[in-house]
Description:
Layout: H1 11-23, H2 30-43, E1 47-51, H3 54-64, E2 72-75, H4 82-89, E3 93-96, E4 119-123, H5 134-144, E5 147-151, E6 159-160, E7 163-164, E8 170-174, E9 187-191, H6 194-204, E10 208-210, E11 213-214, H7 225-255, E12 268-269, E13 275-278, H8 284-293, H9 310-314, H10 323-331, E14 332-335, H11 343-357
Parallel strand pairs: 2-3, 2-4, 4-5, 5-8
Antiparallel strand pairs: 1-9, 6-7, 6-12, 8-9, 10-11, 13-14
Helix pairs in contact: 1-7, 2-7, 3-4, 3-6, 7-11
Amino acid sequence: MINIAKPQIGEEEKKAVLEVLDSGMIAQGPRVKAFEEAFAAMCGVKHAIATTSGTTALHVSLLANGIGEGDEVITSPFTFIASANAVLYTGARPVFIDIDRTTYNIDSALIEAAITPRTKAILPVHLFGLSCDMDPIMKIAQKHNLAVIEDACQSHGATYKGKRVGSFGTGTFSLYPTKNMTSAEGGMITTDDDAISEKCRVIRQHGMRRRYYHDELGFNFRMTDVHAAIGLEQLKKLEGRNEQRRANARFLSEHLQDVLVPYVPASCTHVYHQYTVRVPDGKRDALRAYLQENGVGSEVYYPVPVHKQLFYIEELGYQITLPEAEQAALEVLSLPVHPALSQADLETIVSTVNKFMAG
C-alpha cells in the first residue's frame, strides 16, 4: 500500500530523545526554549511559544488576543474542525464564509460583508499547505481593528509574497505526526507582538508569571523537552522535505489526467501538506475505492464542512448554505505526496488514477 502519509523519524530524532531522557530534564526545559527560538527564526518572527497541540495553540492564541464570550470570529467552514472548535472554547462564535473555488481557502472578497459589531477577529486557514490571500485580509483587519489568527497548522514553511505564514498576525501550527514536520504531538504559536507572546506563555502555564503565583485562569498546555527534541531535528529537515513534496507534486500535476490538479497562485509557495485534486462528475468516491483496491491510499479532506457537522446544526443552530465549500466536500480527494514516495510510487499513483478516469 502506498500510504497517504508516512511520518519520517530518523536516527537524529531518536538520539535527541535519548539525550533528553538521560539528562533528567524531561518536562518543559532547555530543549523547548531552543525549539521555540529556532521555529521563530524559521517564520521570521520575534517569538514562538510551544504548546501541546495545534488545537491548544489556536485556543491560547484566541484568548491572548482577547477573544471571549459573545464575540464573533470570521473563519472558513472547509477545514479540520479544531479551527472552529477553538473559537467555541473561548465562548465566541465562529462566523463561516465561503471559500475560493480554486484555492479552497477563505474567500477574502466575502469577509467585509460578514463583519458585525461583535466581530473581533479573522481566522484564515492556510489549507493543504497553501497560504491564504493575506494582503486583503490584513487590510480589512486593520480597517476594522480586528485581530488576525492564522491557522497555519498545515503550512509549515509556506510563503505569501516571500513572507512566511505565521508572520502576518498570530500564527498557529500543529506538530501532529502526519504534518510536514512533527514533534510526535505538539503545537506552536508565532508572533511579533511582545504582549501577545507574554500572554500566551502565561495562559499556557496555569496563569503563572512567577512560580506558584497565579494571576489569571490558565491551562497546562506545556510541551515537554522530549517532544521539543524531536521537533528540533525535524525542523532542520523541513526545507528539504518541503522541496521534495513540491517535486512530487510537480510530477503528479504534469501527468495526471481528467482531474483538476492543485492551483498555486504566483504569489505563493505551496508546501503540499496535502496534494488535493478535484474529481468531476460524481466519480470521487468510486475513484477512491478503486485506488484502495489497487494499493494506493487516499483521503477526503474534508467530507463534511464544519457548518454541516451535526453538532453545529443541532446544538448551535447553524442553518446556512455555503455552496463552494459544500461542492468541494463532494469532489476533493487527496493523493500521496509525502517525501518518502519513490519514483515508482509516483508512477503507480498516476497510472492508477488515469486508468480509472479514462473509463
